[in-house]
Amino acid sequence: MNYTELSSIEEWNDAYEKSANKPLVVFKHSTTCPVSANAYEEFTNYLNDKPREDVDYVLVKVIESRPTSLQIAEDTGVKHESPQIIYFEKKQKVWSATHWSVTKAHISAVLD
After folding, report:
1. CA of 12: how far to CAs of 15, 35, 37, 112, in Å?
2. CA dihedral 82, 87, 90, 94 (to 10 degrees)
3. What is the layout of strands, in order, in the sheet containing 24-29?
4. pLDDT digits (tens, 9 = 90+) for 5-49
5. Among 83, 82, 81, 71, which residue's Cα sits nearest to residue 16?
6. Which of 16, 25, 95, 109 has the highest Cβ tally under 10 A?
7. Phi, psi (5° rounding) for residue 87?
8. Average model confidence (pLDDT) across the chain
């Protein structure tokens, strides 16, 4: 299973609206940060194994798509950090983790 990369506020708005009916996982990734590189590997390991199929997965590159990343923080009240993973159901944050807490095991424990 793959993720969709969000690069505009419009794409985020669309994904967020859809989370009213289908769970959404947002992964915020910094392409210049070694901790984020590790978290990205954990996220993709989860997706390459047996991810929950009733969930939309999206990735936001926080440097390249800064306005989108900041809009997510504003819309959801989840303080911006990177790397960061946020799980939404019905447009509400259910769970989030940052930095070294973004692991395949942690994602599996929450989603599966």
Report:
1. 5, 24, 22, 24
2. -100
3. 4-5, 56-61, 24-29, 84-89, 92-98
4. 999 999 999 999 999 999 999 999 999 999 999 999 999 999 999
5. 71
6. 25
7. -110, 125
8. 96
Question: How much is the pLDDT for 109?
Answer: 96
| Domain range annotation of the chain | 4-107
- Residue 32, both tokens: 């210049």
Amino acid (one-letter) located at 92: Q
Which positions ≥6 away from 58 have C-beta within 8 Å? 3, 4, 5, 6, 15, 24, 25, 26, 27
User: CA-to-CA distance for 112 and 109, rounded, in angstroms?
Assistant: 6
